[in-house]
Design goal:
The protein has about 300 residues and is an alpha/beta fold. It contains eleven helices and ten strands. It is about 45% helix and about 25% strand.
Length: about 300
Amino acid sequence: MKTAGLNFRHLYYFWVVAKEGGVTRAAERLGLAVQTVGTQLQLLEQAVGKTLFNQQGRRMVLTEAGRTALSYADQIFLLGQQLEEALVEGDSSRIRLAVGISDSLPKLTAYRLLESALALKSPVRLVCHENEFDALLADLALHKLDIVLTDRNVRTTLRVFSHLLFDSETMVVGTAVLAARYAGGFPHNLNGAPFLLPTRNNALRGRIDEWFELHRVRPDVVGEFEDNALLNTFGRRGLGLFFAPSALAEELSEQFAAVLVGPVPQVREQVYAISNERKIKHPAVEAILAAVNPGTLGAA
């Protein structure tokens, strides 16, 4: 059915009702009469030709059409909030940079990659979001993010672009006690050694498993982690050996007391920046892409 056109005030009332879970609470939030909100909701349903809520006892439950409308309303009003923030920030000297960071990405790596943006003459306000790869790509497509830092390339069918920022050999590290125990005869002495590994949805994990198979090593996997920062924290406590990029050896030693057990040149850790196609370039994104060459992250 062809609609008569959306009234965004009606859509906003619908959005608040859905968020508050009912007309009464929505009316309290909006400072309006319950009857007024209910009437506006009915007008929206008439305009779109769909029932958006079903009444179940005292509860209002979204229909399938209502859930679809809510997903779009979320995007519309989130963008509205971001527009207000952007206009306010436009009066300041800071450039806003919204960065999505894959939860599997080492936080030290993310920091080093973002240093170039923070070094711009115009001050930058960083807004960092951590999430899973697919969720970050969805936010990038909706322009909620300016750039995504992740450990994997993106499908070429999407209208986004991958830039290889970092390509480093890895190494096996651990506390001084564990390193002293397993450094001799590396890597064949790693059979039965306690290891902390990324989960299998991490791009690095497949390369690690292949390396174990190549050297016929059967590790004792103590833990698997989505979050690399949590993995490193457990490693600092001496609960297991773990893989880390060689380019960050100095920082790992300082922050996590990580001692080299042995180099693993066959397993490489890669980091990509994923960006949108835009006619107007973001100066902070351009700084990140221009400043880092693959393999040079640790040179600074």
